[in-house]
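Allow me, if you will, to draw on your knowledge of protein folds for a short while. I am sending you one protein, given as its amino acid sequence and as whole-number tokens for its backbone shapes. Kindly check, if you would, that the fold set down in the tokens agrees with what the sequence suggests. The record follows directly beneath this note:
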Amino acid sequence: MLQNGKSIRAHATEVNSVCFSGSGKVAAFTASSDGTVRAWDLCSCQAKADYRGLGMSQPFICVRVPEDGELVLGEKN
């Protein structure tokens, strides 16, 4: 649940990792066992982009956004 009392349905299965963008944008990224990573606008609570695995349908176990702004994903494989 978000601080303002809103909840969002993020993925079809459990969320394994959440990170927040350090680029000055109000954004978060969620990685899931459903094989997707989603980018979220935290002001609107809306998903802005979906990323899928490289065809292996492996669960994502981590997501990070380093200072350079590149999205780094880790799959279970």
Q: What stands out?
A: The chain has one domain: 15-75. Strands lie at 15-20, 27-32, 36-41, 46-52, 60-64, 72-75.
